[in-house]
């Protein structure tokens, strides 16, 4: 076991900065459930094309993830997720989720989301728009299933974060999603998400998508800010 760990550490220490970035991006997708346990990852060629790096860089990143027991690689079959999430809505003691108050979370979202939307509008590709449109269509199909709605809301913002083409911003926003999932917001949303409020959110997501699709930066940012104000009112009402 000690010998294996030493090999793992040597892999970690020898990788370059580009490989570290790809490791972080894949790690975020695995831990968030975008690549669920036991699922097969896209091929090295597909990942290299999507992430804008060489296949060798992807291969090195997968070496690191395999050393961390996050994926298992089968010759001729591909790479499969072995990471098993043990998340619950209760935050882990001492974690960021436990130490983050509703106000802390809203402040961070109010800083990140408007600029994230602005960057996404400027950098979003036709494929990103197609992917986002699919998520919006799924959101609009939800009627009463709160779990589906919360999951799709996360995926909506995750898609926007990816569209910024800024891996650090994407990773930062993934942390805000993780904190939401761990702690207060998910429970609060389940408490307040009536069918009527779901319809209101659906309309807002649709308007935001249209603003992004037409590259109307100011409208997209304004819709985002109004959404955050509504969230604030929801928390204050709950208090």
Could you characterize what this model shows?
The protein has twelve helices and two strands, in the order H-H-H-H-E-E-H-H-H-H-H-H-H-H. It has two domains: 80 residues, Orthogonal Bundle (Arc Repressor Mutant, subunit A), CATH 1.10.10; 143 residues, Four Helix Bundle (Hemerythrin (Met), subunit A) (Up-down Bundle), CATH 1.20.120.530. With 239 residues, the protein is mainly alpha-helical. Strands 1-2 form a two-stranded antiparallel sheet. The N terminus is likely disordered. The longest helix has 22 residues.
Task: Summarize this structure briefly.
By secondary structure, the chain is mainly alpha-helical.
What is the count of β-strands? Answer: 2
CATH topology annotation of the largest domain: Four Helix Bundle (Hemerythrin (Met), subunit A)
Instruction: List the helices and strands in order.
Output: HHHHEEHHHHHHHH
Classified by CATH, the class of the largest domain is Mainly Alpha
CATH superfamily of the largest domain: GntR ligand-binding domain-like
Instruction: Quote the beta fraction.
Output: under 5%
Q: Give the strand order of the largest sheet, numbering strands 1, 2, ... along the chain.
A: 1-2
When the domains are counted, the total is 2
Residue windows where pLDDT falls under 50 for at least 5 positions? 1-11
The tally of helices reads 12
What is the CA-atom radius of gyration, in angstroms? 19 Å
Using the 3D structure, state the CATH architecture of the largest domain: Up-down Bundle
Helix content: over 70%
Anisotropy-based shape: globular
* Average pLDDT: 82
């Amino acid at each position: 076991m000690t010998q294996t760990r030493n090999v793992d550490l040597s892999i970690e220490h020898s990788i370059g900065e580009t490989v570290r970035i790809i490791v972080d991006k894949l790690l975020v997708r695995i831990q968030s459930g975008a690549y669920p346990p036991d699922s097969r990852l896209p091929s090295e060629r597909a990942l290299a094309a999507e992430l804008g790096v060489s296949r060798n860089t992807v291969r090195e990143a997968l070496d690191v993830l395999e050393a961390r027991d996050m994926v298992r690689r089968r010759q001729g079959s591909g790479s499969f997720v072995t990471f098993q999430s043990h998340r619950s809505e209760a935050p882990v003691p001492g974690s960021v989720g436990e130490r983050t108050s509703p106000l802390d979370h809203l402040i961070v979202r109010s800083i990140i989301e408007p600029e994230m939307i602005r960057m996404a509008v400027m950098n979003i590709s036709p494929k990103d728009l197609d992917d986002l449109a699919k998520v919006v269509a799924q959101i609009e199909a939800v009627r009463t299933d709160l779990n589906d709605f919360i999951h799709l809301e996360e995926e909506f913002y995750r898609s926007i974060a990816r569209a910024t083409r800024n891996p650090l911003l994407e990773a930062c926003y993934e942390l805000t999603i993780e904190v939401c999932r761990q702690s207060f917001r998910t429970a609060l949303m389940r408490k307040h998400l009536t069918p009527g409020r779901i319809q209101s959110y659906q309309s807002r997501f649709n308007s935001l998508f249209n603003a992004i699709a037409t590259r109307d930066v100011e409208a997209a940012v304004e819709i985002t800010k109004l959404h955050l104000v509504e969230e604030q009112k929801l928390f204050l009402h709950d208090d």
